[in-house]
Write a structure and sequence with these properties.
Elements lengths: L6 E5 L2 E9 L2 E8 L4 E5 L4 E8 L1 E6 L2 E6 L3 E4 L5 E5 L3 E8 L3 H4 L1
Antiparallel strand pairs: 1-2, 2-3, 3-10, 4-9, 5-8, 5-10, 6-7, 6-9
């Protein structure tokens, strides 16, 4: 069964929905309750994230950056990164290549 278009709980206070995956690109929306964290991790994929609403603190290789509605941040391959939602927030994440690990 495909996970595309289905919301799933990712971590406490965090849910995600894979919107589309085709060719070498994947698009996913991630919604956060205030104070929720996307735990630190890394992957070989390039990632760009656009804040759809709210404010999110990104930690990328130890450097903190706050991204607000309309802001975009780039995460290079294999960079250790995590986030904390400073208020209810949502991100539009784009990955290349496709995150096959999330489609399973």
């Amino acid at each position: 069964m495909s996970k595309i278009g289905l919301w799933e709980n990712a971590e406490p206070g965090v849910k995600r929905c894979i919107l589309h995956a085709e060719g070498n690109l994947m698009m996913m929306e991630v919604q956060f309750e205030a104070g929720a964290e996307g735990y630190e991790h890394s992957h070989p994929h390039e990632q760009m994230s656009r804040c759809l609403y709210g404010r999110i603190e990104f930690r990328i290789d130890g450097k903190a950056t706050v991204v607000e509605k309309g802001g975009v941040i780039y995460i290079p391959p294999n960079a250790k990164h995590g986030v904390t939602a400073l208020e209810p927030s949502a991100l539009l994440d784009i990955f290349t290549p496709v995150r096959e690990d999330l489609l399973k």
